[in-house]
Design goal:
Blueprint (H helix, E strand, L loop, with lengths): L2 H6 L3 E5 L6 H5 L7 E3 L2 H7 L6 E4 L6 E4 L9 H4 L3 E3 L6 H6 L7 E4 L6 H11 L11 E5 L2 H13 L6 E5 L16 E6 L21 H7 L8 H15 L6 H6 L3 H23 L7 E6 L8 H8 L2 H6 L2 E2 L7 H4 L7 H4 L10 H10 L1 E3 L10 E7 L10
Parallel strand pairs: 2-3, 6-7, 6-9, 7-8, 9-10
Antiparallel strand pairs: 1-4, 1-5, 3-4, 10-13, 11-13, 12-13
The structure holds S-adenosylmethionine.
S-adenosylmethionine (SAM) binds next to α6 and β7.
């Protein structure tokens, strides 16, 4: 295979679930016959039926890449929840949140199907919790059907003890000041988005895989089919803005470009609302915000708007700068788009120096490149100490 082929192939990313097993154990069992390569490219170019190879990721602990032609779905490790198929980029939010370095509970605001929830649980259960109070993960999922999937996934991952699932819970309707949340120190926000970064979603990455593999690699667990996904997005967006606009009606007017613009506008309003809600949890110290979108409207623009909001200033939230990020994320080279952090909108309070800092703090993944990820965006917010909330 040439370099060109490698870019068009999406590896199969396998997260070793440390709640049930270890990387070392998997390397000597499930992956016993695999040869360990020192680069992802080698895995993608030399793999064939006879020579299986794997790559242990250099950024995310407990993550392995294999050639997509290798099917693990029948292995005991997969069936027992010891290994989880999860795109590398989709592992960034929980890892960047670094819940181990805090002692409090965590809210996963938009949890189903639960890839990031179970990753959070694995992170808090590892050695860091020795001699410490148990950290709980509260997983909110508004959609009851998707919450069922979440439940199954949490159970399979062996995370029942660590995760409390809030079925049918709209994160926006939680009261941040409720006594039960006083100990929440971290929030992971992975809201519904356009999904434009998902491999196979459009033709910017030519995927040479059968469609069932596209689904397997769809770490965001988007509903099958464009229409259902769009309907879900529209629901979110409609709730965020005008509650009585019929979604079908909205989608029939205008050109494709206009429709996309409108859709992004509604989605980003919804995303910003979620982020502003997260800022209000009185004990919170750290928040991650992520999407599987490639559009700046849902990414850098949401981050900069959130940072220049009154809530962020009142509550003392700032961006988690690159130099303070956990090792693997600090080393990740693809960062946010500077031009989209430099806005001319009137209520904008971010100057050029800050815009550079913010762009460098934002983490992007490009799809269809040799890094082998889906298109993705993540940024983290911090405040030194929790501030006292005045009411509202
Ligand atoms: N974090 C998940 C994972 O890694 O497996 C993927 C989350 S998916 C992108 C977004 C989810 O958020 C959807 O299941 C959607 O139903 C849910 N959702 C959207 N708005 C919500 C809200 N206001 N409160 C709670 N859940 C919400």
């Amino acid at each position: 295979g040439s370099a060109e082929d490698v870019r068009h192939l999406h590896p199969r990313w396998v997260r070793v679930n440390s709640l049930k097993t270890s990387l070392a154990h998997q390397l000597s069992s499930t992956f016993r016959e695999f040869e360990q390569q020192d680069t992802l490219t080698k895995v993608m170019t030399c793999a064939s039926g006879s020579s299986k190879s794997l790559y242990v990721d250099e950024h995310i602990p407990d993550l392995i890449a294999i050639h997509p032609s290798t099917d693990l779905s029948k292995t005991p490790a997969y069936i027992n929840g010891e290994i989880i198929m999860q795109d590398k980029a989709s592992c960034f939010p929980a890892y960047l949140l670094d819940p181990c370095s805090l002692s409090g509970d965590i809210i996963d605001a938009c949890a189903a199907p639960g890839n990031k929830t179970t990753h959070l649980a694995a992170l808090v259960s590892s050695s860091c919790t020795k001699n410490r109070r148990k950290q709980m993960v509260y997983a909110c999922e508004r959609d009851k059907g998707r919450a069922e999937t979440l439940k199954k996934m949490v159970h399979l991952a062996g995370a029942d003890d660590l995760v409390s699932i809030k079925t049918g819970q709209d994160f926006l309707r939680l009261d941040p000041l409720a006594p039960g949340f006083a100990n929440v120190q971290a929030l992971l926000l992975d809201p519904s988005c356009s999904g434009s970064g998902i491999v196979g979603r459009d033709d910017t990455a030519v995927l040479q895989l059968p469609s069932r593999d596209v689904k397997a690699n769809d770490a965001q667990g988007a509903p099958r089919g464009k229409k259902r996904k769009r309907a879900a997005d529209a629901r979110d967006a409609v709730q965020a803005t005008v509650p009585d606009v019929a979604e079908e009606e909205e989608m029939q007017i205008g050109s494709e470009d206009e429709k996309l613009k409108e859709r992004l506008k509604n989605l980003s309003a919804f995303q910003l609302k979620l982020l502003t809600q997260a800022f209000k949890f009185p004990g919170a110290r750290r928040i991650t915000y992520s999407t599987c979108s490639v559009h700046a409207e849902e990414n850098e623009n949401v981050v900069t708007k959130a940072l220049s909001s009154d809530t962020a200033r009142e509550q003392g939230w700032t961006i988690l700068e690159r130099e303070h990020q956990i090792d693997g994320m600090r080393r990740w080279s693809t960062r946010g788009q500077l031009d989209t952090c430099l806005s001319t909108e009137p209520d904008y309070t971010i100057d050029e120096v800050q815009a550079h800092t913010i762009a460098d703090a934002c983490i992007r993944c490009e799809k269809g490149t040799e890094v082998g990820t889906m298109g993705f965006f993540v940024a983290a917010f911090v405040r030194e100490s929790a501030t006292q909330l005045s009411d509202a």
